[in-house]
Design brief:
single chain; mainly beta; Elongation Factor Tu (Ef-tu), domain 3; 6-stranded antiparallel barrel; two-stranded antiparallel ribbon; globular
Length: 161
Amino acid sequence: MQAINFKPIGVIHSSFKSVDNMPIQPVGAKNVKAVIELYHEFEEGLKDLDGFSHITLIYYLHKVVDFKLQVMPFLDIETHGIFATRSPLRPNAIGLSTVKLIKIENNFLYIENADMLDGTPLLDIKPFFAQFDNRENSKSGWLDRRWKEKNRKLISDDRFK
């Protein structure tokens, strides 16, 4: 199989220096601020993005060193196939988060609900469009059951170190 190479378009600066007690998913990072430093050569691509309230970030999970095909995700105590989870231990260490866009100043994007490590390489930015991105009558497998539990935690532990 042919290798696929990506070049980062920027870097995400956050307060999280390690995965210890990091929020899992943007919903667990409510009001957590971060700054995206887009490399100058891509700044022109930000035209009209300021009209969106949310953006979806695609990034490289740069601290992941291995992958597993079955994991026990943060929201469960049973193992699941990696593709039925959002675990970072993926065959391709790609992360995906939809965050709130606060403002854009030149090549800096200020965001909230950030669940990324400091120094995370940014691969792409997509505008969030509710009419495309939301799905009616969707099912979320085992996550539907676990999400309803009152004592679920939305911060990391040591299972993916």
